[in-house]
Amino acid sequence: MQPLPAVVLLSGGLDSSTTLAIAHRKGFVAHALTVRYGQRHAAELEAARRVAAALGVADHKIVDLDLRAFGGSALTADVPVPKHRADDEIGRGIPVTYVPARNTILLSLALAWAEVLGAWDVFLGVNALDYSGYPDCRPEFIEAFERLANLGTKAGVEGHGRFAVHTPLIRMSKREILRTGLDLGVNYALTVSCYDPDETGAGCGACDACRLRLKGFAELGVADPARYRTSVGTGR
Ligand code: ZN
Asked: Which domains can be identified in the chain, with CATH numbers?
């Protein structure tokens, strides 16, 4: 059987890089999509380029859609990124790093490209376990978006197939995600997870994304190969 094309949303972080490797393992030909939405630093985009090159993709598009036009988030406006939140604080409530409707926007772009490619499959590296409490990372949201995809596209309505949004990480812990990625040959040194990296991509070690990442590596008993601005130990 001919391998099927899939669109994989690739931010350059740990989760989306693992998701790309999983899409390959499932036999899809990956078309990687990165959106420059106004992230604090270009380091994330560089990471996406490196990961796409290292894992090998059919095509990698970087689309500009600057959400700083709206702001409303610590990632897209001049709002400080929360640091040093306790583990039980992370995942309680919706923090200011939430980017309004980000995954709806990203999935819509991926869907548009999928329709052009004749692909029925979109991969998104959301996680609803070790995560920051974002509403658009939950399974209910993904199921609703799948319904939308099949209702709102020519391909979906003509019924030659059905769009599926694959979220292989959604119920995995960070530790499980890392174990899976390492087994699939993901080089996590290439990835940038931090919400507030410096221009070289070095992580702060203290934001929710850094803390969840460091906790995952610590639980696995593996050193995080990412660069951090200060010595952060295990992040605990
Ligand atoms: Zn950080």
From this structure: 5-195 (3.40.50.620)
